[in-house]
Give the backbone structure.
Amino acid sequence: MTSLLIEQILNGLQLGVMLFLMAAGLTLVFGVMGLINLAHGSLFMVGAFAAAFVADQTGSYLLALIASACAAALAGVLVELLVIRRLYQRDHLDQVLATFALILIFSEGTRMVFGSFPLYLNIPEMLSGPISLPFGIEYSLFRLVLIAVGLTIALGLYLLITRTRIGIQIQAGESDREMISALGVNISFLYTLVFAVGAGLAGFAGALVGTLQSVEVGMGEPVLITAFVVIVVGGIGSIQGALVGAILIGLVQTLGTYLLPIWSIALFGSQDIGSILSSMIIYILMALVLLVRPKGLMGGAT
Amino acid sequence: MSERQLTFFVWAALLVFAIFANSIGEAYWVTLATRAAIFALAGVGLNLALGNGGMISFGHAAYFGIGGYVVGILATHAQNYMPIYDGWFIIEGTQLMLITWPLAVIIGGIAALVVGSLCLRTDGAYFIMITLAFGQMFYYFAISWGAYGGEDGMSIYVRGGFPGVNTLAPLPFFLLSFILLTVGLLVVRMLNKSPFGLALNAVRFSPARVETVGISSKQLKLIAFVISGMITALAGALFADLNRYVSPAMFSWTISGEIMIFVILGGVARLIGPVLGAIVFVALEETLGGLSEFWHIYLGLLLLIIVLFAKGGIAGVLIKNKGARNV
C-alpha cells in the first residue's frame, strides 16, 4: 500500500513536470507578449510526430528528442513570423480565433501527412525496465529520468530568466514593452525568441509524453487545457507559479485517480462516484483556487 | 443592404430552402437545414455572451452537451421503463419534447449560473482559459458517467414527440427547430432593446461608468451568461432529437470552437450573424467535406483570413453602413 502510494506520488511528479514544460511556454508567451496561444498544443503534437518520424528513420532516441525540440521551435518561429506577429496588438478574441484556426490547420495537415493511425515511440533500451529504489520500491527508470529532466529544465529556465542578459530583457518585456524597445532592444527578435523557446519546450514534452502513450493527431489539446488549469491555479505570467501549479495539478490528478475510487468503494460500495469525482478533481481544485485567490496561488497584484 | 434587410433575407432563405427541398423530395436537404437552424440557435446563445456581453466563452459545448444529455437521459429511462428516481415519489423518464426541452433549458441555466459565477471572478485571458477548462470538465464527467453510456453515449430509438406534430418526418421537425430559432432571435432582439441589453452593451465599453450609475456590471454579465447558456442548451436538446444519439463528443472543446466559428463567420454582435455563420458552416461542411476528408484545413484557413483581414465576418461585408459594433 505505502509503496503503491509512493509510486503514485512519483507518477504525479512525472505528470507535473511534463505539464510544466507546456505551461512554461504558455505563461512566458502570455507574460511577455500578452498573447493567449491555443496552438501551443499543436506544437506539442509537432514535436511528438517529429520524434516518431526521426526515431523510425534513424533508430536513435536521442536524435528523435533533438528533432522534437528543433521541429517544434522551427514551426513556432514560422507561425510567429506569419501569423502570431499580427496578433500582439489585437484583442484576446482575435488571438483565440486565429490560434484556433492554426489548430485546425496543424491537425489536419498532420493527418494528411501521417494518417489517422497512432504512431509509437519506443523507450530506448538503456532507459527501459524498472529500477530499485529504497524501501523496496520498483519504479520505471524512464519515468524517473523524465522527472529529473523536467526539474533540470525548470532550473535552467529559472537561471536563464533571472541570471542572463536575455532573461533580464524578457523580464523587462513583461513589465514595459515600449521602454525596452526604446532602450535599443530588438523587441521583435525577442518575441520570436521567446515564442521559439516555448514551442521547443512544448515539442520536447510532446516527444516524451508520446513515448509513454502514443503519438496521434489531437494529442495536444487535452494537455493544453490541463496546462491552462495549471496556469490559472499557479498564477499567470510567472514561471514559479507554473512550476508550483504543474506539480500540484500532477499530484492531485494522479492521486485522485488512484485514491478516490478506493475511498468510494469503502464508503459507498461502488467505485462509480469516485471515478466521476476523480475525472473532475483538478477542475474542482481550480474552482476552489478561483474562490480564494482569483489571481492564482503565486499571482501577484498585477 | 441594411442590417434589417439582411436579417430578414437570411431568416426567410433558410425557411424557403427547407420547404422547397421538401417539396422536391430531398429529405436530406431538409435535415441539413435543420442542422443549420440548430447550430444557429447554439450560436445565438453564444452571441449574447460573446457579442453583447463581451465574455469570450470557449466552453459553450458544456451547455450544448447538457441539453443533449437531458434529452438522452430522459429518453433512456422512458425506453427501459426504469424510473430516474424511485423513493418518496417517482420520477419517470419521458420523451415529450414539451417536458424534455424546458428541462434541458433549466438545467443548462443552472450549470451556466455555477460556471458563470466562478468565471466572472476574473476576466480577460483568464476567463477564456477557465471557460475552456470547465467545458473540458463536463466532457470528462460525461465520459466517466458509466450509468449513461460513458464513452459510448446513448441511443434514442425514437425521436421525442410533440402534441399534434409528426416529429419523425423531416419537415415538421425542421419547422419546430426553426420556430425555436426564431423565438431565440426575438428574445435576443428584445433583450438588446431593453434597458438590460443597453446596460449590457455599455458594460462592454466602460464597466466603470456603468458601475457609477448604480448598476452592477458583474450581475448584468452573469444574467447574460445564464440566458446564453440556456439558449445553447436548448440547441443541444434539439440536436439530440435530430440525431437520436448523444455522446460525450457533444461536450468536446471542438464543439465550443465550432459554435464560436458560427458567430465569427457570420458577424459578432449582429443579430443574424450566428444564423448566417451556421448556414455557411453547414454548406462548407457539405461541399468541402464531400471533396476532401481534410476539409477542416480549409475551414482553418478561412477563419484565419476572416480574423486577420475581415473582422466583421460575412454580415460585416454585406452590410454597407458602418454600424458594426466592435467587441
